[in-house]
Automatic annotation (TrEMBL):
UniProt protein name: Glutamyl-tRNA(Gln) amidotransferase subunit D
Keyword Membrane in annotation: no
Enzyme Commission number: 6.3.5.-
Record keywords, A-Z: ATP-binding, Ligase, Nucleotide-binding, Protein biosynthesis, Transferase
GO biological process, one term: translation
Residue stretches making up the Asparaginase/glutaminase C-terminal domain: 299-411
Catalytic reactions on record: L-glutamyl-tRNA(Gln) + L-glutamine + ATP + H2O = L-glutaminyl-tRNA(Gln) + L-glutamate + ADP + phosphate + H(+)
GatD N-terminal domain residues: 7-61
Subunit (UniProt): Heterodimer of GatD and GatE.
PROSITE patterns membership: ASN_GLN_ASE_2, ASN_GLN_ASE_3
One example GO MF annotation: asparaginase activity
Length: 438
């Protein structure tokens, strides 16, 4: 293309051999992939690749230069606004296009927040820092521990109204649940937020989610670990889910997160900046900061499947795991041939917890014989707790004590509204649809 005067960041008109015409800006050529492909950023913000063999004509319409964005905190912040501290951990919400590889990668500079989302100047005085810069699937219990310790330090040293944590969405509910168990008392909420679509895309949900999360951190009456993400297909509602009740339920929709076995804790109407509580019971803001950040990495989450051999569970016993969260079928079952294996695990000091793959509803192991036998073998039922929340909780519990009976006692306590005595009828999506159709 160079012979035609086409350079990186040239604005061009491209006519294809089939008559289709494209207009856009030439993007840097990826180091990996087909080098005969011209990559254009179209006027609608999306990138398109065109193989050179399909190009009939190229006309240069103008030239652009890559200008580094000015970074820095806003200077027009209003006095008297609450303070909110941002922690960056990586993920799509803090992602940029890597033009060397053509991929999207995590990148978060806290100083860019105001320039990216100027609406925040009317909501809060922001301070920010990057704690990690990793994909959420690379998060480990060790990262949860570091995150909890840092949250404690920030509240003690800077006394913000709340903390917003930018986090990848794939494992956000694990981290939010983990922090809910680690943080026993807080002066304000810790609000996890993220984006299903990166900020360079026209349909990005990043700005709306950050605005909603900041409003929650600044104004909410509660002091819990929560997730603030899109609650509708449009850009109006952000729902606030308890970390211990939330789950990512869609791989790509912007409103991917749902509260399971519970209504959301609150909602934010973004255009009006209104925060409305949906549940009346919550942990209030405290004058104290009480955080227990230690987590065990000796816990596994295992999903039962038809025909699962006992060797699968034996592996964890032989590998020295101290806790096992099972995702059983229905009311909390595995095949009868595994009961003996579970009994050996418990006998050897492994805590075995039972959750349900159904997600909605609760474990009840007193109904069928297999459930009763598992109870007799020493399995701890997790009531209506989500498998991911149970995994985070058992990891935290075993970080506090190595005594098996004390760990079981602590696991059974309702520490962060992760279980409930009864499940609300309208907390199930089918019930909500039925009510709408009546």
């Amino acid at each position: 293309m160079e012979e035609n005067g086409v350079k990186v960041f040239s604005r061009v008109r491209v006519r294809l051999s089939d008559g289709v015409e494209l207009r856009g800006i030439v993007m840097p050529r990826p180091r990996v992939g087909d080098r005969e492909v011209l990559v254009l950023k179209l006027d609608n913000g999306y990138n398109v690749g065109v193989h050179a063999s399909r190009i009939a004509e190229v006309e240069v319409l103008g030239e652009y230069s890559a200008v580094e964005e000015e970074r820095g905190s806003a200077t027009r912040v209003k006095e008297g606004l609450p303070r909110v501290h941002f922690l960056g951990t990586g993920g799509t919400i803090a992602s940029r296009v890597d033009y060397v590889t053509g991929a999207v990668y995590p990148y978060f500079s806290a100083e860019e927040i105001y320039s990216m989302i100027p609406e925040l100047e009317e909501i809060a005085v922001i301070s920010a820092e990057t704690l990690f810069s990793i994909f959420s699937e690379d998060m480990t219990p060790s990262h949860w521990s570091q995150l909890a310790q840092h949250v404690k330090r920030v509240f003690e040293a800077e006394a913000p109204s709340g903390i917003v944590i930018a986090h990848g969405t794939d494992t956000m509910h694990y981290s939010a649940a983990a922090l809910a168990f680690a943080a026993r008392k807080l002066p304000g909420p810790v609000v996890f937020t993220g984006a299903q679509r990166s900020s360079d895309r026209p349909s990005s949900d990043a700005a709306v989610n950050v605005i909603g999360a900041t409003l929650v951190a600044a104004r909410a009456p509660f002091a819990e670990s929560v997730i603030a993400m899109h609650g509708s297909p449009d850009d109006r509602i952000v729902l606030v889910h308890r970390g211990v009740r939330a789950r990512k339920m869609h791989s790509s929709r912007r409103d991917a997160f749902m509260s399971i076995n519970s209504l959301p804790l609150a909602q934010v109407d973004v255009p009006s900046r209104e925060l409305r509580m949906l549940l009346g019971e919550y942990k209030p803001r405290s004058d104290e900061v009480e955080v227990y950040p230690k987590f065990s990495d000796g816990v596994a989450l295992v999903k039962f499947y038809p025909g699962m051999p006992g060797d699968v569970l034996e592996f964890y016993r032989e590998s020295g795991y101290k806790g096992l969260v099972l995702e059983g079928t229905g009311l909390g079952h595995v095949r009868s041939e595994l009961v003996g294996v579970v009994r050996r695990l418990v006998r050897d000091g492994v805590i075995v917890v039972m959750t349900t793959q159904c997600l909605w509803g609760r474990v009840n192991m007193n109904v069928y014989r297999t459930g009763v036998e598992l109870l007799e073998a020493g399995v701890v039922p997790a009531e209506d707790m989500l498998p991911e929340a149970a995994f985070a909780k058992l990891s935290w519990v075993l970080g506090q004590t190595e005594d098996v009976e004390e760990a079981k006692r602590l696991f059974r306590e309702n520490l962060a509204y992760e279980t409930s005595k009864r499940t609300e009828y309208l907390a199930y999506p089918g019930a909500m649809w039925w009510e709408r159709c009546r």
